[in-house]
Design a protein that fits this description.
The chain is of the alpha/beta class. The protein is 39% helix and 17% strand. The structure holds 5-S-methyl-1-O-phosphono-5-thio-D-ribulose.
């Protein structure tokens, strides 16, 4: 199934619980805004485009759960839910984008029934469009890959970070669909291991060759000629920087040092055209994510911890940005990204 979807019989959100992978593949239901927020905070659903869909479906869920019989009451309920959902994770812009897009779609509703109908239609459109955009993006990006390339990636920018297909991994899927032999090196992505738990799992499901390394091995593999290209996703692209999973910046510096192309694959919904890097809040996560590995204590319980979920890669380290509208090269004139090439 898709990473996140709507159950029309129960009128609730369904998603793959990504915290259980690769050990267990389990579909869970979110019947309330509280359970959706818990799922987002715990990373049961994660990855910028998937969060866009979660935000959209979240507003639809709030509309279905609203007990108000008046349109004003229903609107108040969904707006409050939208704020709560947006507050769960501040860095990935797609989350607020998805919430706002669905809130905008219900503005013309005349009654509570229409609020529900319009919200759900828009949320479903976000999900369907995400798949189409990733496949378009994949086609554009595949032209940058050569037969025989080994591509290094970080975190999970695959189908599980999106509704389906993926951004960075979507490019690899599209290139392989074109018959190119592409191999992947996946960085484990400490501290929550999206690379080792999710990227390797979904690539192996698709029989795409993948080798797992620790994040700290990326310099070694790039210096030793084992990487032809790096492709990562993005949580937010401002005028001057790409925000992505912590560790991305380090890979970009090493890639630049060794003349390896460093590509970012992201839909236009990930762009924050108005803002600059220093205006963006980087999510700080709980210290225990570094003090424990699962249930196993790996640091003193009272050690001070700094645990940012994302970092910013300056545009000068980025070789190209791959979107559903085409591939864009430096100097990145973000306004051009809105127009299909
Ligand atoms: O904390 P996460 O797992 O939500 O972080 C995800 C990433 O950093 C991804 O690389 C990014 O969202 C791009 S997903 C296509």
């Amino acid at each position: 199934m898709r990473t996140i979807d709507w159950n029309t019989e129960k009128n609730c959100i369904v998603m793959i619980d990504q915290t259980l992978l690769p050990k267990e593949y389990k579909i869970i239901e979110c019947n309330t805004i509280d359970s959706l927020c818990e799922a987002i905070i715990k990373l049961r659903v994660r990855g910028a485009p998937a969060l866009g869909a979660a935000g959209g479906f979240g507003v639809a869920l709030a509309a279905f759960r609203s007990k108000s019989s008046t349109i004003d009451g229903a609107m108040k309920d969904i707006e409050a839910a939208g704020k709560t959902i947006i507050a769960t994770r501040p860095t990935a812009v797609n989350l607020s984008w998805g919430v706002k897009r669905v809130l905008g779609a219900v503005e013309d509703a005349n009654n509570v029934k229409e609020v529900r109908l319009f919200a759900l239609d828009e949320a479903k459109a976000i999900a369907d469009e995400d798949v189409k955009k990733n496949m378009d993006l994949g086609e554009y990006g595949a032209s940058l890959l050569d037969d025989g390339d080994t591509v290094m990636t970080h975190c999970n920018a695959g189908r599980l970070a999106c509704v389906d297909w993926g951004t960075a991994l979507g490019v690899i899927r599209s290139a392989r669909a074109q018959g190119k032999d592409i191999k992947v090196i996946s960085c484990e992505t400490r501290p929550l291991n999206q690379g080792s738990r999710i990227t390797t799992w979904e690539l192996m499901e698709d029989k795409i060759p993948v080798i797992l390394i620790t994040d700290s091995m990326s310099g070694h593999v790039m210096r030793n000629g084992m990487v032809d290209k790096v492709i990562v996703g993005a949580d937010r692209i401002t005028q001057d920087a790409v925000f992505n999973k912590i560790g991305t910046y380090t890979h970009s510096v090493i890639a630049k040092e060794h003349g390896i192309p460093f590509y970012v694959a992201a839909p236009v919904s990930t762009f924050d055209f108005e803002r600059m890097e220093d205006e963006i809040e980087i999510e700080l996560r709980k210290p225990d994510e570094l003090r424990f590995f699962g249930d196993h204590q790996i640091a003193p319980l009272d050690v001070e911890v700094y645990n940012p979920a994302f970092d910013a890669t300056p545009m000068e380290n980025v070789s190209a940005i791959i979107t559903e509208n085409g591939v864009f090269y430096p100097p990145f004139l973000l306004e051009e990204v809105k127009i299909k090439v």
